[in-house]
Amino acid sequence: MVSRLKKFYMNDKIIVPVIAVVVSLFIAAIVMLLIGKNPFIAYGALIYGAFGTEGALINNIMKATPLILTGLAVGFGFRAGLFNIGANGQLIIGALLATYVGAHMSTFPFYLSIPLTLAVGMVGGALWAAIAGWLKVARGAHEVITTIMLNYVAVFIANFVVNGPFQAPGGVPKSPEIAYSARFPDLLTTGATWLSAGIFVALAAVAVVYVIIEKTKTGYEVKAVGLNPYAAEYGGISISKNTILAMAISGALAGLAGTMQVMGVYYRYLGSLGGGMGFDGITIALIGQNDPIGIAFAAFLISSIRTGSNQMQIAGVSKNIVIIIQGIIIFLVAANRLVKSLMFWKKGAEEA
Amino acid sequence: MVGEIFPYLFVFERMVFVEKGKKDYSDYAVVMEQIVKKFPGVLANDHVDLFVKRGEIHALVGENGAGKTTLMSQLYGLINPNSGKIYINGVETKIKNPNDAITAKIGMVHQHFMLVDRLSVVENVVLGMEPSRGPFFAIDKARDQIKKLSKRFGLYVEPNAIIEDLPVGSQQRVEIIKVLYRGAEILVLDEPTAVLTPQETEELFKILRTLKSQGKTIIFITHKLHEIMAVTDSVTVMRLGKVTGIVKTSETNSRELARMMVGRDVLLRVEKDKAKVGTEIFKVEDLHVKENRGIEAVKGVNLSVRRGEIVGVAGVAGNGQTELVEAITGLRKVEEGHVIFKKTNITNISPKRRREMGMGHIPEDRLKHGLVTSFPLYYNFILGRHDSPQFCDGSFLKMPEIKRSSEELVKRFDVRPPSIDILGANLSGGNQQKVIIAREFSFNPDFMAVAQPTRGLDIGAIEFIHKTIISMRDKGVGILLVSMELEEIFSLSDRILVMYEGQIMGEVTPDATSTEEIGLMMAGHRLEDLRAQEA
Amino acid sequence: MNAWIQAIINVFINPIFYKSTLNQSTPLIFAALGGVYSETTGVVNIALEGIMLIGAFGGVVGSYFTGNPWYGLAVALLLGVSMAALHAWASIRYSGDQIISGAAIILLAQGITGFSLVELFGKPGSTDLVRSIPLVNLGSFEKTPFFGKIFGSLSPLVYIAFASVIFSWYLIYKTKLGLRMRSVGNNPEAADTLGINVYNIRYFGVLMSGILAACGGAFLSIGELGQFTENMSNGRGFIALAAMIIGNWSPTGAMWAAILFGAASAFNDQLQSQGILHLATNTQYLFGMIPYIITLIVVGGLVGKSRAPSADGIPYIKD
């Protein structure tokens, strides 16, 4: 039992992200000291802000919902050897289309309008991502550049749409609200915060992605293409088909994240709805080591830091420090050899 | 047993001689003394001694994995020994990196050429020791120096040519010039003949003799015994990281060397019955295929394979064999011509359909095409058949069946370690190849394209793989065997085709031809011309 | 339709369009050149975006605290090189994934600039106005018709950008160091066997990319206006990468592609301000996406025709 536990902790997949998180929090603490703030107070505020009250916890879970999905989106892409930096754009397009459809659902019963709105949001994200997949397959364009460009284009499209053809009355840049029948029911309400049923959709997505990756033909093919495209092609697996498919699945998950924001949080499209969730998805996928269950935990970690950072800001530390923390985490995961070399005990284990 | 101990007598003789002179190594260009090099899990060099006299051509022989290249990499400073000493011209010299080696006038021509493809010959030759004019690189000076060297040693190359446009033979000459440009007195050549035709090899030997006559010392790594007899003065034999013999070439013979190399008498030919040839199952007609840069690599090849026979394709690497096999198996587009399998035209159908029709493929590069090295074995065992009804019911994989059949293959093909959960990357080369062969044969193919099945493997694995291929032939599978190893072609094939610059030079049977004849075809002579000359 | 043709003609005969092209191209030229240095030695650098951002911020901070915009440039370079050094450290010394490391640098730059902005200037969004680098006035030349309006008063950084292109071309194609950079980017193993220190050359390439991208960033902030706003690099680092690809990894090619992108966005700006088109306010968003769509099209259309250095993006691991 002890040795099994030891083996579990020695596993690179777990130890590297854990060390990355710890080291980044430590560096952030030093930064706080440098600007004359007490890191214990700041982190105390952060923990209180994330878990201290019922409202905090609800906020935390609400934040985790889309983050689980963008994390899955980026992670699924990584499994197929694709770096989808464009989750933000896919999220925007998904949210925009879901809003449009959702706004026209007032005459539909909830059991039709909810699945329909969800589906449209996913398809929107999938198609947007598939553009990058197609450009890679047909034209050899690297997905990092194309998905980022598509992010910008999505932002401009959304701004155009909510400043004209699909603008709520009143001259504010936001869309009309979606129909009540297309909204997720609230599970809990505390003051001004509520917990929507969206979290169950996100958790279901974790299960579905897990099954796709581990148990299906599609998962097998996508992984083979990601790990060794030459061998995949030799084994009769189409690289083009699977690259576009993987990109589309990844985009569908990102689109679903945007749809969650529309159906459970804002009930409309507005510009700040996506935030930096696509980039957060990268951090989350890397911490979760592209494993769906790991991603769910990592998303909860990041949502906690994000939710708590408001309280921290009140305690005098700018919440931008969270972005620095995430940057350091990604950096350390990229340089995982550096992290491994920090682990002096690892050497003994390898020689044994 | 005698063969095991006997060669060491020579070692002792030399050591005694050396001891008497109080370690006077001044006659020796290179002495490597008691070199030990460990890699994780392997003792690559186990107290190795090497004595190379100044001005001689010294062969370093042994099977793949015997530790020859490791030893030479230490002489060149690419890796550093765990213990042991190196003496250059009698002086103990620390060689920590290639710069130290270059300073000690040691030059190395690597098995895989160390050339920058996109740069010109001049740029490659002077790289790292560029003549300059102020802050600028003086390319004209460099060009003059190269022309001088070419003339002096009879190594002709066009200085302005870009490396990737040159044929292999010329690239090798560039490598030798590169070494000479650095003022090397000691040249190490790592399996220089592997990519050459017998005739090009002869030319290389001429160059080596010229170099020797001008006082250079040459260490020549090889595992081809007749080359040792042809060109070297003395030989050091290695096996499994140890020296098993040090002899003068004039005092030994191929058989003795072979025994020192493998530790027993070598079975030079595989035992096999006469082929029971059936109907024609596979055929290509006037096939044209391009290589990656868009140049035609296969120029109108015709061939056919019948059930129950092995058709060997011989040739020097890079003459279109890779592209031929890739076109046959559907990995590369056919520009012109037809591929016909079981009387169906399959010219441009997907690899997947070809597999479903009963075509197997053992790829030339097992790590690139054959395995997903980060997959566990049970996933690797179904690659190509992962969506067959046996392993998949539409969308979901049948994991219990996948694992069961994998267990069976691991047992039947004696894959070690016998675990289906191990990652492909963690197997030895021989076991990786076993996994591929087990997989391809377990799909019960009717036709199999086999490329370079034993490259880089040890004798034991080679024998196993050869036997498996023969047994499949005897079960009625038609096999197309592409190999750069003439010996393999001779011992397995029922018919032999020779490929040169994308064309078939002729077809012969192993019992009605000679190495010389095949060598000439590999160098671009057509069989009908050769036979006409004879007549 | 006639109004559109007239508007386009108006843009092209206006010297402001050409001046704006130069100004819009300058940061892209710097960053694209940076990409050329890094990738010629074999290190993919998507961190350019982050380095530009931190450079822009550094420029303002230096200028704010010293009152001298040239010190601002120095601070920009220092910060840019530091960020590049981080990327180099992860991807060369620790053979990390260069794209992930680059993404980390981008995020770090956003975090550091956002965080410090609040700490130093007390408010999010943008900094105070600071002194910008003085423009080069050509005196009476400014009165020359047309050309005077284009070249009369430009930032010295514009001239430095073009000078850097020429300098880099000579460095990469005509010097020993350049030959070694190209060899390391194409076949590091071969270079290693000839005693060339692959790591040092790669460090040089990546650090140079830090200097150049930071120059581009500094131009954004203290080149003209003298202010930093959050995320002001706004994807220019990625557009610069596209320019580098279109320019086939050569300094001059990258420059021409950067000018093309600069011209495209200058053209947009000028066209929008053409009164005769009577454009609705939200059309600015449609125009705004054009440079990004062009990048998509060019990257999608041209990649097959340009060839990256063979070892680009592959860590070199010595046994």
Walk me through what this model shows:
The complex is a heterotrimer of chains A (352), B (535) and C (319). Chain A is an all-alpha fold and 352 residues long. Chain A has a single domain (19-29, 40-47, 56-188, 197-343), classed as Orthogonal Bundle (ABC transporter involved in vitamin B12 uptake, BtuC), CATH 1.10.3470. Helix content of chain A is 75%, strand content 3%. Chain A has 16 helices and two strands. Chain A has helices spanning 2-10, 12-34, 39-51, 54-79, 87-103, 110-139, 143-162, 198-215, 217-227, 229-234, 239-266, 277-287, 292-314, 321-334, 336-342, 344-351, and strands at residues 186-190, 193-196. A two-stranded antiparallel sheet of chain A has the order 1-2. The longest helix of chain A is centred in the middle third of the chain and has 30 residues, at 110-139. Chain A starts with a helix and ends with a helix. Mean pLDDT of chain A is 89; it is low at 345-352. Chain B is of the alpha/beta class and 535 residues long. Chain B folds into two domains: 1-105 and 226-262, P-loop containing nucleotide triphosphate hydrolases (Rossmann fold, 3-Layer(aba) Sandwich); 280-534, P-loop containing nucleotide triphosphate hydrolases (Rossmann fold, 3-Layer(aba) Sandwich), CATH 3.40.50.300. Chain B is 36% helix and 25% strand. A six-stranded mixed beta sheet of chain B has the order 6-9-10-3-11-12, with helices on both faces. Chain B has a six-stranded mixed beta sheet with strand order 18-21-22-15-23-24, with helices on both faces. In chain B, strands 2-1-4-5 form a four-stranded antiparallel beta sheet, covered by helices on one side. In chain B, helix 15 (429-442) runs parallel beside helix 16. The longest helix of chain B is centred in the N-terminal third of the chain and has 19 residues, at 2-20. Chain B is globular. Chain C has 319 residues and is mainly alpha-helical. In chain C, 70% of the residues lie in helices and 1% in strands. Chain C has 14 helices and two strands. Chain C has helices at residues 2-13, 15-40, 48-66, 69-93, 98-121, 147-151, 156-174, 176-186, 188-193, 198-222, 236-246, 251-272, 283-288, 290-302; strands at residues 136-137, 153-154. A two-stranded antiparallel ribbon of chain C has the order 1-2. Chain B binds chain C through residues 76, 78-79, 97-99, 102, 108, 110, 114-119, 123-124, 127-130, 132, 135-137, 178, and chain C through 170, 174-176, 178-180, 182-183, 186-187, 189-196, 309-310, 319.
